[in-house]
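Re: weekly structure request thread

Next one in the queue (423 aa):
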Amino acid sequence: MLDETKNRMLMEVGDGTPMGNLLRRYWMPIGSVSEFEGKETKPVRLLGEDLVLYKDLSGTFGLIDRHCCHRRADLSYGYVEKRGLRCNYHGWLYDKDGSCLAQPYEDTVLAESSIKIPVKIKAYPVEAKAGLLWAYLGPEPAPLVPTWEPFTYNNGFVQIVFAEVPCNWFQCQENSIDPVHFEWMHANWVMRLKGIDGPYSPAHVKVDFDEFDYGFRYLRIREDTDENHLLWTVGRCCLWPNCLFTGDHFEWRVPIDNENTLSVGWFFNRVPQGREPYVQNSIPSWTSPLKDPKTGRWINTHVMNQDFIAWVGQGTFADRTKETLGKSDKGIAMIRKQFFDDMDQIKHPNADPKGIVRNAQINECIELPIMNRKRFQEGLTPEEMADPNDIHARSTKRFVFLAGQPKEVWNLYAEAMGFDKQI
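Done, posted below.
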């Protein structure tokens, strides 16, 4: 249980707040490279700031203030030039650094004047990596965008999925260190949703948590496993500061503002043996719906959609002054303590919080705890992928994590994997 002051410290992400200052020290995924194959601009709200992401005609990405500093027009309706983004209202032109390169009328009538008003708007760095577009809103010098191990894998099909979840980011991230919910939400509840009364899935008999350089691991033993099982010896990880990593995919919980979270999923499927080499020229991205348009109820048919129900069910802001934590919530207490420690840490000059990467050699490939690493690197045979007792067999039939996958994305995936396409 937390008091209200500490609860709000964990949730509020605006500029100048303790958590807002901390999260600005990390790169945040805010879009995909492939989105800009069909558009020039994207309005973005990140950590309570209204911005516009754009790709100019030279291929350079920029992230600047949403509003032109002339008359505050919305720059997401602007259009790109060879260098920068031009306001559609009066033609003022801004580059990726926020510098105003042109003020057409003023440049004409003041062409001979030695007195010109310098104009600059807010701007933040953007980098492309692993098909994602990353933004950094913190103090310079910026750290490196981490090169997580799966970003270096070959012969895999990757897709990126977004969803905007109407609740505070921290209750989403607490889900990243909660192993027991798999038993009840993703196993037993799913059986009931299918009209099956039982038997229930194997119960958890032991859980534990430990820390590593880039986050925390959660380890678990169920009735059908023991201490030799990969769920215990390797486990899965709560990746710092706002991600879950399970081995084949990442789930970032990116704060839009205090009340809303952008879920960003990055999913890797190794093609079967015999289908190499496979080179993916463009990583598709799409947005998952949250509610069934026919009933107005939250979609519960896919893994992450089930998680969304748990998150928003706690309210826009989880009231941790009324919670009752148990033995399985040790990991929750650990990450809360780490966040409070990090908020204190950055008060000191030149001090980095947990998980910051600045060493370029280390960043060539940052290894993570990964169960069954070999299958992601070397792949399975088609027969192994078709084994109904293997968890990866489910990927031969449908995308299980989020609802609403477009048919064209499934067909690209099926073509890469050698599965049946959708008609």
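The longest strand covers residues 156-165. The CA atoms of residues 84 and 95 lie 4 Å apart.
Next request, please.
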